[in-house]
Amino acid sequence: MAWTVNSLVDQAACSAIGALFNGGSVRLTDSGASELAAPAFNATAFGTPTNAHPSVAAANAFTGDASFTAGTIANIAFRNSGGTTLISGTVGVGSGDFQVSSADIPGSGVDYISLSALNLTVSMAGA
């Protein structure tokens, strides 16, 4: 017999995971692990997750990083408010764990680096 998981479990897990990022940041680094930018999560990183399989929560507005460095993003790390990396991966256009339309951070003509949208999706069941 297969496990049955109520969608409230997905919602609770999504809410708890999202809360880990409250006041944290998203560290963007180049291939040499030098930080290029670190946009900050809101004090409440994610909104209320959906009561569904899977549960989805949208990130609240980010605070852009005005002290960024030009370069090509190769890696991403989602960190909590203490700076501990909780989730990390590679960044790429057409490849990588985190897909972007452009991995280049320009050296001029930009006021700050931020993220415009990010969703957290959690599924505790195969449904």
Label this structure with key terms:
5-stranded mixed β-sheet
Helix content: 10-25%
The overall pLDDT, averaged over residues, is 94
Which spans of ≥5 residues are poorly predicted at pLDDT below 50?
none
Give me the number of helical elements.
1
Strand order of the largest sheet: 2-1-5-6-7
Sheet-strand content, in percent, reads 25-35%
Structural class: mainly beta
Distance between the termini: 14 Å
Query: What's the alpha carbon Rg, rounded to whole Å?
Result: 16 Å
Basic shape: elongated
Largest sheet: 5 strands, mixed
List SSEs in N-to-C order. Answer: HEEEEEEEEE
Written account of the structure:
The protein is mainly beta. The chain contains one helix and nine strands, in the order αβββββββββ. The strands form three sheets. Strands 2-1-5-6-7 form a five-stranded mixed β-sheet, with no helix packed on it. It has a two-stranded antiparallel ribbon with strand order 3-9. β5 (75-79) and β6 form a beta hairpin. The radius of gyration is 16 Å and the shape is elongated. The protein starts with 6 loop residues before the first helix and ends in a 5-residue tail after the last strand.
Fold blueprint:
Layout: H1 7-19, E1 25-29, E2 35-37, E3 55-58, E4 71-72, E5 75-79, E6 85-92, E7 98-99, E8 104-105, E9 119-122
Parallel strand pairs: 6-7
Antiparallel strand pairs: 1-2, 1-5, 3-9, 4-8, 5-6
